[in-house]
Each structure stands twice: as C-alpha cells, then as structure tokens.
Design goal:
It contains 24 helices and 14 strands. By secondary structure, it is α+β, with helices and mostly antiparallel strands. It folds into four domains: 111 residues, Rossmann fold, CATH 3.40.50; 106 residues, PAS domain (Beta-Lactamase); 157 residues, Reverse transcriptase/Diguanylate cyclase domain (Alpha-Beta Plaits), CATH 3.30.70.270; 165 residues, Hypothetical protein af1432. The strands form four sheets. It has a five-stranded antiparallel beta sheet with strand order 7-6-10-9-8, sandwiched between helices. α4 links the parallel β4 and β5.
C-alpha cells in the first residue's frame, strides 16, 4: 500500500497493478505485459524467491524491497536476476528513492535490450556473411595486409585454383604463385587505400596446375579483430573470354581457312587506303579444280585443298599483309607499302609453291592477278577490279596447259591409288583399238576409246585404299563403296572439256549385256559401244596378267571365258569378233 500511496502522492506517471500473493502475481504476469515489477521479499503465500525465476525469465526489470538489516537477502535476489533493491527504513526515505530507482532500472533495461539487439544483429550478420562466403560460387579469399598470409578462403577458391585447405591457409600468395606478377598485390592494396575499393578489375591468376585463369576482381580492406585484411572476390570469366574471343575471331576470320574474311578485308582496306601506305598492291587468286575435288572426292577433300592454299598464301606474305578469303574459291591479298616489283616476287612465290603441293590427290593450280595503286587519284576499287580481270584472263590463258596437267595428274593419281598400272593401260589400249578398228569406229571414237582405256576407273581415286588393297573377299558395305566409282568417274569427267566426251562411257563401263551390271542396270545396245569394248579389253588383260587377288590364266582359258560370257556379261557380236581376232 506504501507503493500506491507514494505513486498517488507524488503523481508518478505509472500505471500499476497490485498483487497480494504469489498465486495472484503469477496470474497477473500470465495475463498482462509489464515494464517493471517492484516486489517485497515476503508475500502472503510465500517469498520473493518463489516467483523470482518467473519474473527473470520474462525479462521484466525487478526491484526488490526488504527490511533494514536484511541486505544479504537483497544481494541474493540480485544474484538471482533482480535489477536493484531498496532497504525499507522507518522514516520511509526509501519511498522517496523509488521513482529514481525505477527510472534507473528501466534505463538499464533499455541499454541491455539495445545491446542484445545489436549482438543478435551482429550474429545474424556474421551468419549471413559466413553463408555468403562459403556458398558463393566465386572464389573469395581473406589475407592479412601485413605479410599477406591467407586466413580464410571459400570452397569455390579450391575448385577454381586446385588447392587443398592446408596448402593455402597460412601461406602467402608469392609462395603459391597465384598472382601472375607478385608486385600486383601491393599495387592493388595501395590503390584500394586511395580509392576505398576495387570493382570488377580484369586480372589473370595462375592455378596450382599452372593454368592461367582470367577473372573480374573486386577487393577492399576489412578489419578483422583489429587487424587489417584484404578481402578479394574473383569472378572467373575464362570461358566467357574464350567465347568472346571466338565470336570476335569468327567475325573477322574465315572459319575454314583461318584467313581474314571479306568483311574484315573491306574494313582494313578503308584504313590502309591512305597516302602513307602507298604504293599499295593487290593480288587476287582463284583455285582451279576445286569443283572437281568436291565432286570426285567430296567437300571434305575440297576443304583440305582450300586450307592448303591458305597456308601457301600466308607463308608467301609479310606479317603486315592482309590475306583474306574473298569468296568460295577466291582469295585476295592486300600488300601495303609494296610496289609492283616486290608484289611480283610474292606473285611468283605463290605460283611456285602451288606447283609443289604434291600431297594432294590431284595437282591443283592457282590463277593469279596483280595490280598496284601508286597515287591517291586511283580508286582502290578499280585497282581490285583490275587484279580480278587479270586473274580471269590468266585463268583463260592457262586453261589449256592446266587441263593437260590435270589429265596427267589424274593418271598419276589413279596408278598410285589403284592397280591400274601404266602397262595395263597400254595393253588395254592396244586390245581396245584392235576391236574398235574391226568394227570400223571413226578416228574420233578411237581417240575416245584410247582415253577411256586409261581413265575408265578414275573414280577409284575416291575409294579408300583399305578397300582397294584388301586381299580377301569384300564385305557387302565395301562392295557397295566400290560400285560407286563409275558415278564418281562420271562427275570427274564432266568437270573437264577433254574428258567430257567419255563421261557416259565411264559411267557405263561396268554395265552388262544382260542388264545385271551397275550402276544403272543398262542392257544390250543401250550401253555405249566403247564401254562394251572396254569391258572385254579390261577383263581379258586381267585374266592374262592377274591381280593380287586373282591368278593369271593362259590365253586359251581367257578367250574361252570371253566366249562363255558372250550374251551375258559381254556384247555377243563384239565377243565373237575379239575371239576371232585372237585365234
């Protein structure tokens, strides 16, 4: 009641509830929230210690009032969690101190609560930092500013740089060789001290295996327990850089040959077309025979040819020259500060190098055109057009000798890739000519017959050696591959004016009189006459001279086989004529 009287008399700004027993106090504490509890040591049905734990657990400030001389009890209550105490004196001076004591206890509670909140926020922040640190997909490291020793790194650091925990913690970057240039770390720290932090700085670091990785580095200086440390976060962009460089490369370069592409060349032409770069020379080149290679051997071999030509062009030029693929089989070279005399030397070097490309299945040539710009009044486009015109003019002038060397190259390749020896071809020509004259072929057809005897199996240059040289029986798949050589030979022949007259005969030289041959199943006189003649000449010579997979037989046996197959494999009329010529 003294508390109530004091509050009322002094007009203290408190709302309060009185409880006369332990039981009542517990009920009130369960029902309502309080900022403060003032409690006598003795209550109606117990003592302060019966309810002390309940009050302390709720976090409510507690002031204990007890009698004079009972300070020991007050101290015990303080140890149990009470915030303060008042000793009741007879003069009731303690009631005068009540307001001050309550305010002090409430203020202390605010301070404690604020500290608890700060500590909780700090724990939460540390927990979040720990999770962000260890779960971050980017490598993070913390190292001492002084000495540089690593004190903490995350899992991503181990994954990217390839180290184990005991290989990093306590070691300095120079010992591990992570920094490409050891002094870079000190320079970075000085920069951070001036600017506050570094964000997304592109840098390169070395992994344990020696691989160089490109990263975007962000770094700042942090305080850890009163000591300055360097916090580094490095986002690995190695693969992204490779992809960007690949995109950049493809935007400037021809994917197949690696040379510059036409778009890049035209941009460089604008940059170089200045008076300082004069004289400027241009060489244009066109690959002869690319269509033939593509048709006969497939585009893969055609691609290999273009790559080979690109290598020749690049090796023939200076580093500052621009070599580009102008179109499908056309190339262009830009030679700054190069007069016609010097450009002519490059021109001749390219032609000579092409003539020595002997690792190709068919001898290939390059038609070239050269022009030069000597003053700024000349339009560079006209210079390109002049080089192009000269290239096409040279292509026409060289076409006859090119075609001759082409046929010689075909014969050479065929002898290398198949069993068509020079002697076999000569013998076939003689036999075929005898039959052709016997049936009174005109001279033009006799010439075609002679050429057909040499190149009827030209399509075999596209058949793998593993099949052509196989000593045993061919598999079904291998036989199907062999049966494609007439069609391949047909396409090759169509690519050359000299061979086009015998293209159909090459296609049909494995047809049979009874229609069971390949590739078209032609029969009787639908098969070209010279194809029917070659079929007899080829079979007869093979039987007489043998092959790795077939023993030679006598002349009588060979003529008997020709006679036996008349009307099935061979034209019966031609077979009789041939047998009659040899009897």
């Amino acid at each position: 009641m003294a508390f109530k009287r004091t509050v009322n008399e002094r007009g203290l700004p408190y709302k309060y509830v009185l409880a006369g027993s332990i039981h009542k106090a517990r009920e009130i504490l369960e029902e309502e929230e309080f900022d403060m509890v003032v409690c006598d040591f003795s209550l109606g049905d117990g003592t302060l210690f019966d309810i002390l734990d309940d009050i302390v657990k709720k976090g409510i400030p507690l002031i204990v009032t007890t009698g004079t001389g009972d300070e020991e009890t007050a101290v015990k209550a303080m140890k149990g969690g009470a915030d303060d105490y008042l000793i009741k004196d007879v003069e009731r001076n303690y009631l005068k101190m009540l307001s001050t004591t309550i305010d002090k206890a409430l203020e202390n509670k605010k301070v404690i609560l604020a500290r608890q909140q700060t500590e909780a926020a700090l724990r939460l922040s540390e927990e979040r930092f720990s999770k962000a640190f260890h779960c971050n997909p980017d490598p993070i490291s913390i190292s001492k500013i002084k000495g540089g020793h690593y004190v903490e790194v995350n899992e991503a650091f181990f994954e990217i740089y390839g180290y184990e925990l005991d290989e990093v913690i306590g070691y300095i970057p120079d010992e591990l060789g992570i920094w490409m240039v050891p002094g870079d770390r000190d320079c970075l720290i000085e920069e951070i001290q001036e600017q506050g932090s570094i964000r997304n700085r592109e840098m390169r670091f070395r992994t344990k295996s020696g691989e160089i990785r490109t990263t975007l580095l962000s770094a700042e200086i942090i305080d850890v327990s009163g000591e300055l440390h360097l916090l580094c976060v490095s986002k690995d962009i190695t693969e992204q850089k490779k992809a960007d460089e690949e995109i950049k490369y493809l935007s400037f370069n021809d994917k197949l040959t690696g040379l510059y592409n036409r778009a890049f060349f035209e941009e460089e032409l604008k940059r170089i077309d200045t008076e300082r770069q004069l004289p400027i020379s241009l060489i244009m080149g066109d690959v002869n025979g690319l269509k033939l290679i593509n048709d006969a051997l497939g585009h893969h071999e055609g691609d290999k040819l273009l790559i080979k030509v690109a290598q020749v062009l690049r090796k023939s030029c200076r580093q500052e020259d621009i070599v580009a693929r102008w179109g499908g089989d056309e190339f262009i070279i830009l030679l700054p500060e190069c007069d016609r005399v010097a450009a002519s030397r490059v021109f001749e070097h390219i032609k000579n190098s092409c003539q020595h490309m002997d690792d190709l299945p068919i001898q290939i040539s390059l038609s070239l055109g050269l022009s030069s710009k000597n003053c700024m009044t000349q339009d560079i486009k006209e210079v390109i057009r002049e080089a192009e015109d000269k290239m096409y003019r040279n292509k026409l002038l060289e076409s006859r000798s090119t075609r001759s060397s082409f046929i010689i190259s075909l014969e050479k390749t065929l002898r290398t890739r198949s069993h068509e020896t020079k002697e076999h071809c000569h013998r076939m020509q003689e036999v075929a000519q005898r039959i052709g004259k016997a049936v009174e072929l005109p001279d033009s057809e006799l010439d075609n017959l002679k050429l057909l005897a040499t190149l009827h199996d030209i399509g075999k240059i596209a058949i793998p050696n593993s099949i052509l040289d196989k000593p045993g029986r061919l598999s079904l798949e291998e036989w199907e591959s062999i049966k494609k050589h007439p069609e391949i030979g047909y396409r090759i022949a169509l690519s050359s004016p000299e061979l086009s007259p015998i293209a159909e005969a090459i296609l049909d030289h494995h047809e049979r009189w009874d229609g069971t041959g390949y590739p078209l199943g032609l029969k009787d006189e639908n098969i070209p006459l010279i194809s029917r003649i070659i079929a007899i000449a080829d079979t007869y010579d093979v039987m007489l001279n043998g092959r790795p997979y077939q023993k030679a037989v006598s002349k009588e046996e060979a003529l008997g086989e020709i006679e036996r197959c008349a009307g099935t494999q061979f034209d019966p009329k031609l077979a009789r004529i041939f047998v009659g010529l040899n009897c």
